[in-house]
Amino acid sequence: MSVMQQATSISSSGSGFLGQNTFFNTRYSSSTKELSIKVKTKNSGICKCVAATPPPPPPPNEKQQIAYKTNVSRNGNMAKLQAGYLFPEIARRRAAHMLKYPDANVIRLGIGDTTEPIPEFITSAMAKRAHELSTLEGYSGYGAEQGEKQLRAKIASTYYGGLGIEENDIFVSDGAKCDISRLQLLFGSNVTMAVQDPSYPAYVDSSVIMGQTGQFQTDVEKYGNIEYMRCTPENGFFPDLSKVSRTDVIFFCSPNNPTGSAATREQLTRLVQFAKKNGSIIVYDSAYGMYMTDDNPRSIFEIPGAKEVSMYMMNLFVFLLYFFLNFSILISKGLL
Amino acid sequence: MSVMQQATSISSSGSGFLGQNTFFNTRYSSSTKELSIKVKTKNSGICKCVAATPPPPPPPNEKQQIAYKTNVSRNGNMAKLQAGYLFPEIARRRAAHMLKYPDANVIRLGIGDTTEPIPEFITSAMAKRAHELSTLEGYSGYGAEQGEKQLRAKIASTYYGGLGIEENDIFVSDGAKCDISRLQLLFGSNVTMAVQDPSYPAYVDSSVIMGQTGQFQTDVEKYGNIEYMRCTPENGFFPDLSKVSRTDVIFFCSPNNPTGSAATREQLTRLVQFAKKNGSIIVYDSAYGMYMTDDNPRSIFEIPGAKEVSMYMMNLFVFLLYFFLNFSILISKGLL
């Protein structure tokens, strides 16, 4: 089957695209059988794709010359994880496919890596800062733990002017994915969590590792003790909150990955009211907020009352004056 | 008291230097009453230091306008931590001191920040790489999870040539401190751990957060369920292993922070034998290995059998060809 020749059904409950039907299910936090997104492809001559056959599973006992083994046990929650993290697995399968079909032009629907060069005025500033580090005046060692004061003030005024977010509310970290795990560590193992279904896998995986969940249940393809909030075309990709059980933490990504659907002002208002009623914390992931061109809120802090129940993660790939390629802004108002 | 005028006694069991006697004890993982390092200071006119008086404690109930509180509990292990992480606390106290004595030239014995500019040939390479990111040929998105293949091969041959460490054993991460917490997450809450006493605080703090320890016991100034290995002048700063109980993990830093003492080949051989006998894993922190000028091993992998029981962390502040200012090498041989 070539995706050049027909619309391809990509379902979070599995398709031939990734080989094994169970894989996409188990790793993409989805148990939705109905979701089917049609991808229309151009019938041009550029794209030449060939469906992958499932790669052979690794040998059960790889020959390792281990003459000795420690008596240290691993975090038992790790064993609950299914088949490794999604994106390295996709990369492995893609590599195997390319080996077999070297001329294939694979459409990557995986991790969402960037492909375009960075504008020159940004990299020039980065280079300038690099050179400054060789001067007595320009050199600096460790920065402030919460981020440079000047940067935090600028973020507050540029992105959140008028929303009641101040410099002190902002924490600049080294990436949103790291922050997800750190937040889980802050919450500990005794909280319950809800996620959109389908959703970015790091919310669920980090929850599993922290011991917040039960085992993976193969029959329903869900982890125990996680509240999966169905987001399908039928409900406009926004969960029916009347059917969602109360949890401590609600991970909510808008625009969502992988559906691309952005919540409206009215929907987010309902979500905030829901969290407030339940005493929950919303961890709002706005990684794709910069791509929005419509009137939907870019930040949940545009919703009245959201500051009382929400933490906010925003991923900035490049920020002009600073030397990092990828960092994250984390905003909270003392919720715990 | 001025450190200009006399040798100053700095003890990990407390001195006036940090104000409160209990502080250095509780946060620097030390219960050693005897340790006293004499610091000889030059009687020059440059340094003008004034002893700090303890800063006032923060008000018990800072006025916060919180009209609403969530029902989400925090990781209970966080509450076991004493008074916040050591280094931000030192920074806060230093800032308070400088406010009171603006002319003071404080000798910083805290986090060990760097102060000297980076050699120009390194920052030029960093700037070159920045500029390349603006070109179609030079741009790259996410790198390989375990680090670039080429870099890992170079690290293996440059630093571990002849020690049986290969490219595949090496994981390049974004920093040794992050790695400590990630390793703790890998171990989980059911392992026991040993640390040098005194030692870098992140080993203990990360263990506390993961729930591996008991409460902090104020009478002995130790956390329950941690094996503190005394390293004092009396034992040459190397623990008497006949008195150390078996633990799953042994954090071992050489040259150690804060004592500066490096373990000899013979001492490390005993440590490896001790770990092997007990089925323990040594997490070997070699952050200061590059400063060694004597014949002591820079890496524990120089010791026969160490690969079977050791993980290894090495902090590289700058590596020529890559764009990170601070990253870490983590080496393991499939110990779990």
From TrEMBL, chains A, B:
The keyword Zinc does not apply. Residues 105-296 form the Aminotransferase class I/classII large domain. The keyword Transmembrane applies. The chain crosses the membrane at residues 309-331. Its cofactor is pyridoxal 5'-phosphate. One of its GO terms (biological process) is systemic acquired resistance, salicylic acid mediated signaling pathway. It comes from the Eukaryota. Keywords: Aminotransferase, Membrane, Pyridoxal phosphate, Transferase, Transmembrane, Transmembrane helix. InterPro entries: Aminotransferase_I/II_large, DapL/ALD1, PyrdxlP-dep_Trfase, PyrdxlP-dep_Trfase_major, PyrdxlP-dep_Trfase_small. GO terms for molecular function: pyridoxal phosphate binding; transaminase activity. Belongs to the class-I pyridoxal-phosphate-dependent aminotransferase family. LL-diaminopimelate aminotransferase subfamily. This is Aminotransferase class I/classII large domain-containing protein. It comes from Aquilegia coerulea (Rocky mountain columbine).
